[in-house]
Amino acid sequence: MKIAVCVKVVPEPTTARRIDPGSKRLDRSGEGVLNAFDIHAVEEAIRLKEQTGEGEVVLVSLGPERALEALRKALAMGADRVVLVTDEAAAGSDLLGTSLVLARVLEREEPDLVVLGQQASDSDGAVLWAALADRLRRPFVSQVAELTVADGKATGKRQTEFGYDVIEVPLPAIVAVSDAINEPRYPSLKGIMGAKSKPQETLTLSDVGVEAGSVGEAGSKTEVYALAEPPARGDSIKIEDDGDGAEKIVEFLAEKKVL
Amino acid sequence: MKTLVFLEHHGDQLQKGSLGVLSKAASLGDDVAGVLLGSGVEPLAAEAGKSGAARVFVGDDPVLEAPLPQPRVDALAKLVTEQGFDTVLFAASVLSADIAAGLAVRLDAGLNWDLTDLVNDDGRLVGKRPALGDSVYVDVGWSSEPRLALVRSGTFDPNASGGEAEVVPLDVSFEDFSTQARMVEQAHEESEGPSIEDADVIVAGGRGLGGPENFALIEALAKALGGAVAATRAVVDAGWYPYATQVGQTGKTVAPKLYVACGISGAIQHKVGMQSSGVVVAINKDPNAPIFEFCDLGVVGDLHEIVPKLTELVQARRGS
Prior knowledge:
The complex is a heterodimer.
Chain A: E1 2-6, E2 9-11, E3 32-34, H1 36-52, E4 56-62, H2 67-77, E5 81-85, H3 95-109, E6 113-116, H4 128-136, E7 140-150, E8 153-160, E9 163-170, E10 173-177, H5 189-195, E11 200-203, H6 216-219, E12 222-228, E13 237-240, H7 245-255
Parallel strand pairs in A: 1-4, 1-6, 4-5, 5-11, 6-10, 7-10
Antiparallel strand pairs in A: 2-3, 7-8, 8-9
Chain B: E1 2-7, E2 9-10, E3 13-14, H1 16-27, E4 31-38, H2 45-50, E5 55-60, H3 69-83, E6 87-91, H4 94-107, E7 110-115, E8 117-121, E9 124-131, E10 136-142, E11 147-151, E12 166-169, E13 182-185, E14 201-205, H5 215-225, E15 228-231, H6 233-237, E16 258-262, H7 268-274, E17 279-284, E18 297-300, H8 303-318
Parallel strand pairs in B: 1-4, 1-6, 4-5, 5-12, 6-11, 7-11, 14-15, 14-16, 16-17, 17-18
Antiparallel strand pairs in B: 2-3, 8-9, 9-10
Helix pairs in contact in B: 3-4, 5-8
């Protein structure tokens, strides 16, 4: 079975992230890491390949060339190769542009299954799979916490506002997994050593047949007008527990008259 | 503006979030219609009228019985195109987010998500969106029509000041690929367990508890405070605690006077379920946990030590 995993390299979330006031885009100049939610998607794809004992896990991404470095972590975990579309004209793409580029790559690759993580930690976007499914005219199931692939079908158990659904889709299909689905492995030393020599293909927009005007800022149908400080929630007090944390909480609750 | 609001229903109930978005759209002075897609759903249209819909389009078809997104994209794409809606609004949910993104591609339309307000700025629709863990607020818009938006769950309350909606039956047809997904088992609201929605005090536990057995600490503190126990999605998905107690985007939305978060990192999905709480106290060993950004008192430390001690102190104080 051939599995494609759509992954994104994002700014390190523990560092101070900022939106550039000039371009009104997220500052991506710092070091990039693999989006944490995508690591669960990579893990699930590798497990599926291991279960069937054959097939291939292909990482598909859109981003700057230096994203390759962060993508190697997924190769070190056990993915087989990377296809990265990298093109200055694609910077600032919204959902429409991003889904267009990735769909073109997926059309070339023709995987049986496309796996995505549950959201991008930088944009808080949690919808890409549905856009891809419409472009590729494939069925999909999202928010999957348990996945079974057998007999040409993928079956996902997922949580909604009302409890747990079980949804079945025939392959080829698209599945977005939640971070509850697995505990991702750490790359082995052998995996890390071998990652560099795995195939890493970079493509431009014209390589995948996408016109520059339909992606990036030019092709974006959404705009950012202004940035503002968030409304204050009132004073937030943070203390270290030196053995008297419980006492401090009781004092605070008494002061706030909620005890 | 000619606005369409997607009306989500579960069983025979319209979702409060959808009605809230409907009332908000109506308050912007728009020509507002709702759309209801399902099987045997027409009786629900009346409630949409009360919340501000002048017309409710009803697509009734057995294919729409299960809450699956792709057939709904087909129905909405046709409706929006034929009726010339320039704005389509959704209250965010697992279902509606999947519909909105499919619709964005189908109509080549811009989609903004996670909006916490919508304003009419001299005829231009502007959405307010908290970003980067709510550390910055972004004014977002659309460069073309139709404009699609997902409103953060729990943002707008319904306002029952409207009247009677005209019900317009809708012809629906479906793409082959849209009907391939099959609902094998559909979620039903679990009713067992105490309700957390009416509790004045909630003590909530997350992954930081370390294991399901440690919910005993949370239960003891909740009992001492006379409150209810809640859980995060991570621990519910892991099977540590029942789904009925889950607070967050795909769980309950609560607003107690006191919310004590123990071992909860404070992911945005959790935050949206408890951000209207009165006093929020957080105990977490990770000083960088996002929960410390939106609590009133944050204690960096080991909950396994702090919580039992806190329980004792509260018991002593309350004389129980």
